[in-house]
Write a structure and sequence with these properties.
The protein is of the alpha/beta class and about 525 residues long. The chain is built from 16 helices and 26 strands. β25 and β26 form a beta hairpin.
């Protein structure tokens, strides 16, 4: 019996996958939304995440983007404890480690596999998990990759070790869309140690497009071979309400893009260690836009605009542009009046030079590297990292006094030459970003700008004007809550929610909820 002054710890459940990109993040968001709808205080949790698309919390912490959006689905303010360890690759074998929202240090693979580092990680994870379990009623944990990477199991703090810390039953998510899901389900169970197999309480088959009558016999065989029940088959959902976590998604999301005759062709450069390319999701959803990613100069042909996105390693990105020929191609387009935009690391690339005084950005000796030279700016990299949300007013020619909100995540400071106009005026009065004299090339450290419909449409209309097309009105602001509700409806109708509540040892929806 719980004492009057003692709060009961949150119930827990965990979703792990047979591989990366099987849809765990979307399903966690869907479950968070369901539990919120059913009257529970719920939070997502991912102990360890390797991702380059990140999310800025209200207090200036940096976590995985999926955990931030899962918090939105749960109706709570995102906290650094939702993703206590975030790892951001920045070079071969090199990564930045972020602990509870703040830069910890850069480490190599050898360090990440050491016993002391693993124990430190488990301590951080356990402390954050304990805090959340005191503050919420349900915690929905998410794993990373696969728990059956047998060469890495000793250092895997994202899957079964996290499940043990949370005493969480595990639901194993399998991706039907990529093929081999049935073999992946059985094979994963066979590769797991006996103690971990016992933690798996059910399978979820995700991204289903076919006839259920054809699939059903195979599901029964999976249950017979593993002794684990299938708790649901979730259909393929084109729009989940969540942005992607990492560049692996670009391999399938924007492959073989077909441009409509009435669509603007907007080319984003696929930089090494590309980061926060979710900046452009809102552009891609516009009906008059065909967004595609380019890795070669030939792919630039016919572009109405070029965007240089964020990158975790601007030095590596600049070298890539030079070696691939993209640098010359982008400068030729800019010379012809084609608009070029740089966001965060992309803004740094647009300038005259990038100075890595300590060697921390390039991962070696200090160096000075020339940029594209499209803006009269210079960037110097310092060890300190800026992470914050902010509001701003656009100073760009096409967006007269247009208000925007966004967030910054970057190393390095960029200075404009005398006479170069800023792109934005921050809420604290600071000038930010830079714009060329003719207004066609501009850069900024602000992520998330294109999520504002008025600003997005103002820029798109400048591209339409170059084509002599009629201008369009801005679309209505997106209702992200409705998208989360649709996701929750799809997940609720696909899963055995009675069984899920049983695994949580909870009675089900509270008054006003629905099962």
């Amino acid at each position: 019996m719980v004492a009057k002054n003692e709060r009961k710890l949150a119930a827990t459940i965990m979703l792990q996958g047979t591989a990366s990109h099987v849809g765990k993040s979307a399903l966690v968001a869907g479950l968070c939304r369901i539990f919120m709808q059913d009257g529970y205080r719920v939070a997502p949790f991912k102990s360890w995440n390797m991702a380059l698309n990140s999310y800025v919390t209200a207090d200036g912490g940096e976590i995985g983007r999926a955990q931030g959006e899962q918090a939105e689905a749960a109706g709570i303010e995102a906290s650094v404890h939702l993703n206590p360890i975030l790892v951001k690759p920045k070079g071969p074998g090199q990564a930045e480690v972020i602990i509870r929202g703040h830069h910890y240090r850069n480490v190599d693979y050898e360090t990440r596999s050491q016993e002391a580092y693993l124990n430190f990680s488990l301590q951080i994870i356990g402390e954050s998990l304990a805090l959340l379990r005191r503050d919420f009623e349900i915690i929905v944990l998410e794993g990373a990759g696969s728990p059956a990477e047998i060469n890495l199991q000793h250092q895997d703090v994202a899957n079964m070790k996290a499940a043990s810390l949370a005493s969480a039953p595990v639901l194993l998510v399998c991706d039907l869309d990529r093929g081999g899901a049935l073999a992946a389900a059985v094979g994963t169970m066979l590769l797991l140690p006996e103690e971990d197999r016992k933690k798996v309480a059910g399978f979820i088959f995700n991204k289903f497009r076919g006839e259920f009558a054809i699939l059903e016999p195979a599901l029964k065989i999976v249950q017979e071979k593993t002794g684990v029940p299938v708790l649901g088959v979730v259909p393929y959902l084109a729009q989940t309400g969540l942005g992607e976590e990492d560049g692996v998604a670009l391999d399938c999301s924007y492959a073989n893009v077909e441009h409509g005759a009435d669509q603007l062709r907007i080319c984003a450069i696929r930089l090494p260690y590309i980061a926060n390319f979710t900046d452009f999701d809102a552009l891609a959803r516009e009906k008059d836009v065909s967004l595609f990613y380019a890795s070669t100069p030939e792919e630039l042909v016919g572009a109405d605009a070029v965007i240089l996105p964020g990158t975790k390693n601007s030095i590596a990105a600049m070298r890539f542009l030079l070696e691939s020929g993209l640098a010359l191609g982008i400068k030729e387009l800019a010379g012809c009046g084609v608009p070029v935009v740089g966001i965060c690391g992309g803004y740094q690339l647009l300038g005259q030079s990038l100075a890595d005084l300590t060697g921390g950005e390039g991962g070696g000796a200090p160096l000075l590297l020339s940029g594209l030279g499209l803006l009269p700016t210079e960037t110097i990299f310092y060890p300190q990292k800026r992470v914050r949300r902010t509001n701003a007013t656009a100073c760009l020619p096409f967006a007269v006094t247009e208000e925007v909100d966004g967030y910054e995540i970057h190393l390095g400071q960029t200075e404009r030459a005398f006479g170069c106009a800023p792109a934005f005026l921050l809420e604290n009065g600071t000038e930010e970003g830079a714009v060329s004299a003719d207004g066609t090339v501009w850069g900024t450290y602000l992520h998330g700008l294109f999520e504002r419909p008025a600003f997005r449409r103002s820029w798109l209309n400048t591209l339409r004007a170059r084509r002599h097309w009629p201008l369009l009105a801005a679309t209505a602001p997106e209702d992200k809550g409705s998208r989360f509700d649709l996701l929750a409806d799809a997940v609720r109708s696909s899963l055995d929610m009675s069984a899920v509540y049983g695994l949580l040892s909870l009675p089900g929806p509270r008054k006003g909820g629905k099962l």
